[in-house]
Amino acid sequence: MSPEDTPAPRSLAEALRARDDASLAALLRSRPDLITPVPTDLTQLATRAGTRASVVRALERLDRFALQTAQALAVAADPASYQELLGLMAGDERDPAVAAALPHALAVLREQALVWGGDDRLRLVRTARELLAPSPQHPSPTGLGPTVQEATAGMSPGRIQEIVTTAGLASTHDSVSAVAALTALFGDRKRMAALLAGAPEESRQVLARLVWGPPYGQVTADPAAHLRWLLDRGLLLPTAPGTVVLPREVALHLRQGRAHREPEPLPPAVEAAKVHRPQVVDATAAGQALTALATVEELLKDWHEGGPAVLRAGGLSVRDLKRTAVALDVPEPVAAFWVELAYAAGLLASDGEADERYAATPAYDEWLTLPAQERWVRLAEAWLAATRTAGLVGGRDAKERALSALGPGLDRSAAPDVRHRVLTLLAALPEGAAPDPESVLARLQWERPQRREDDLRTRLARWTLDEAELLGVTGRGALAAHGRALLGLPAPDHTPRAEEPSGPGDKLPVHHHRRPAPAAPLSPAEQAAASAAAARLLAPLLPEPLDHVLLQADLTAVAPGPLQRPLADTLGVLADVESKGGATVYRFTPASVRRALDAGRTAADLHAFLAAHSRTPVPQPLAYLIDDVARRHGHLRVGAASAYVRCDDDALLNEILADKRSAGLRLRRLAPTVLAAQSDPATLLEGLRAMGFAPAAESAEGDVLIARPDAHRTPPRTPPEPVPDGPPMPDAALLSAAIRAIRAGDLASTTPRKPTDDTPLAPGELPRTSAADTLATMQAAVLTGETVWIGFVNAEGAASQRVIAPVRVEGGFVTAYDHTADEVRTFPLHRITGVAELADD
Questions:
Q1: Per the UniProt record, which residue ranges are transmembrane (predicted)?
Q2: Burial state string for 706-731 with b = 16 or more CB within 10 A and e = fewer than 16
Q3: Among 36, 114, 171, 179, which residue's Cβ finds the most Cβ atoms within 10 Å?
């Protein structure tokens, strides 16, 4: 049978049945909700594809031109021909750009099972038509109103005949033929032009105001003459007292046949606002990547001993976020981004204690041991996949509750898709080109026009551009080489090209790109390979960690670059960071030196450390500072009594007792060298230090306690799971298995079979036979090699239909080739509801 002889499908199920496996796979890939769970057959697949929730999701994923095509089909006849659709989209003048793009848009709608039928009988699925067709409650984006037939549904036959006669048509014997004649008049370009040629100028102005929508207007009980002219000829039809509408056929004539004022067959180009040398972009991004690592380390180092408390409702308080922003020297929204990024990467979590606080996780210590490029990749991967959206911090949810950093309500399932799409658009530009942000937003709005969500996608895109720069994925607004690799793209070729502009103000459209961008996020295995490639590209751009600092006479040390891990850790305890940037400045103070001594270092250790790691001689003021603090450190000993102070110098204890500031500590002498206190050891330590002393804490055995800055860690924590945006994208194995199961189930449900006991079987009805008849039929099928149809109930009680070829019957079991599952299986006889022979044809 030739394709021309193939009968047209009568339903969506029949249209799906005519598809090949590749076409079904494309449908299930574009609409993954259809196989959650896997349908039993193609009829169930078609039913599920027509449900409101599934159709709404499918419409949300259409680009603007495909959606405009669906909207045009919703206002066309059902069914409509391709030529009729082309006229609605391209107009009477047949816009060549629209005509060229329409076949692809129609193919997309067919692929997603929103449209079915041949080019001569195109049908939009009923649910989509209901959603897109114009109505008074839900105006169509086309701006079109109801048809003449719909608008005259409640009109009296006499009034219809009056309109027909006034319009210059012959009267008819019934309303149906009268409405048909009026519709034919409005659809005839020549006759309509002649009719409107005699219209008053004011009448034409009314039509011009209504032609592109909204098509409804208000009239008084006694309309003006120019309105009466339109009403008498049906060019305006009443829909309710005081309300008139412009019929769809009239509007289409005035629009030259177009359903849309501005069809958009081509996506808007992403413009390059500036072009930089790729090497400059990569170096800038690498520098920012290094800053990102330093910022995350600084954040978690500040929370080593237990960070801010967790709010009762979850999250970080506004005060703690402000304090964190001051500590990091960044604005509060940027601080929220770094906090959320550390949380998404699994480096930060709550400790789960009764007095719950945030702290670094054990994964943070493992992260610190990695090379810098691998640490950056961990952060970038977490950012790409995270659904938590730091940009929402400070806003309010639907219930007007404040959204806090690390708190609930920050997940937005569209965030990973938007981030990936924005970076993909940047990757489509020439290397070194920074995009115009507004052109990126315009492109995203064209690709997903249905997804409003209070313009969430636009805000996500703006945040993505800012966050990518902060993280070092982009440099000077352009996608860096390691950022491109993170998307799975090959490394860029930096060979200069004659046609590439070199000026910072040159503009380039996106269609000049030389490499296609991936259309979807990578699989886990592909992402791992892409991350490794990104790390390899980033590594040469990062400076080698230094093993030295420059000590200065003003009690500061200058680190001209990133320091090696042991040196940075020790120096971070011995000194305070005074300024950051290309070079970090550390300042030595009595408190910082005492902190190093509290951590178990001796004065000799500190002198040796500085001498080993300084390219300049150790300044005399710094050596004196260390010796002076060390001389007084530990002269007093504080322990638990509730607390006590002991010192070999009783004169020093007398000095403490005589000081009025010690009254709050409630000290009393127990012995010439021991004072007892009512406060706990920690309070006593702080109080004595506030008085200018340098006490050391000791254990119950009398040993000096070493206070380590990294003492507090949470229990092992997993990073937060992203909230998926609907069902996950099925992989190739799942698609293959699902299609095989659907095909087999469809075979079982549509295979012709003989009726049992002369009783015809309803479609989908399971056969019912006695156990004896079932056994006899199975045994006969084994002997004859015939294929039979059975009803089967599995161990969970789910019933299904199967087409099997019995091979052996013994011990209460049937071994057969199951056409449904495409494998040999064993069926317990007691679970078979019945058996029927297949029809001869």
A1: none
A2: eeeebebbbeebebbebeeeeeeebe
A3: 114
